[in-house]
Amino acid sequence: MVETYEVTRMIKRPLTLDVGCGYAEHHVPSKKADIKLDLVKGKANFIADAHHLPFRPESFSKVMMYEVIEHLENPKQALSEIHRVLKKEGILELTTPNIMFIGNYFWWILNPKKTEIKDHIYAWRMSELRNLIELARLKITLASFVDSHYWRPARFARIFIFPRLTKHHLFIQALKTA
Q1: Would 6 be classed as within a structural domain?
Q2: Which of 47, 58, 85, 163 has its CB surrounded by the most CB atoms within 10 Å?
Q3: What residues form DSSP beta bridges with 4?
């Protein structure tokens, strides 16, 4: 059984949680997060699994999960846990690689034997990700295609008007309504 932590009694302001804050060199945990959670110490100040968050229900006003969901064995379970720990009207911000990004196709053409991305279990199109988030009883307020801070768009991408093909990541913002 996972020990549950009462974080809301210690701090009286709205709390934020960064799930999967990272240990890789290029990954920068959110400076705005009060609790930075990951499976390994790295940059985390709290060690736990996203599938079983050790916090009481409705502990956080905001949960951030940047470039994590594609690594999870059971993303639906993790999103259900996020729903549980979010306060009513709490916000989830989530990013994941855009499988439709045109650069992926060039990479696969140049590397035909490498058809998978290391450590990624899942890859989603926007419609699939929307369905997954709605299954977790979260209401999507913003869905868009974005570039990350560590990836610069190629010059050809700047002339395209198709973000579905030229942006490297999917970004979703969702709200817990009930």
Answers
A1: no
A2: 85
A3: none
